[in-house]
Write a structure and sequence with these properties.
The chain is of the alpha+beta class and 145 residues long. It is built from 5 helices and 5 strands. A 5-stranded mixed beta sheet has the order 1-4-5-2-3. The longest helix is centred in the N-terminal third of the chain and has 31 residues, at 3-33. The radius of gyration is 18 Å and the shape is elongated. The N and C termini lie far apart (76 Å).
Length: 145
Amino acid sequence: MNDAMARAAIRLVRLCVALVAFAGSASACAAKAGTQPTTATPTTITGEDVRNAGLLGATAYEVVRRLRPGFLMNKTSGSSRTLDPILVSVNHGRLSPINALNSIPASTINEIRYLTGGEAAQRFSTRTNGPVIVVVLLSPPAAEP
């Protein structure tokens, strides 16, 4: 291995160590603030998470910002990062700009899921190459006859 490759490998190891340290400290901060989600998956926020965090009076945007701020960052690599903004789909419907989250009351949320660009392209065909935040709303109660 030449010197350039060795230096690159060392930088990569340092970056990995820094990322692990950052992730650990972010988890500790969230736990102290009482906003640690209960779900086991980092790509999902459940209605239970919203209730446990005391965010029922907030909007979906505030829920995402408080519980999973990483959803608001485009994690797409390469040049498509700036070309493909994060979009929102409510109940797997049409794609909307991210500010649509501001019009969704947190009390109506059943689940919020983050889809990467690849997952979104599979789910929504060719309508997007960037990430999508899918918001599934609670079903309205059935009307009595």
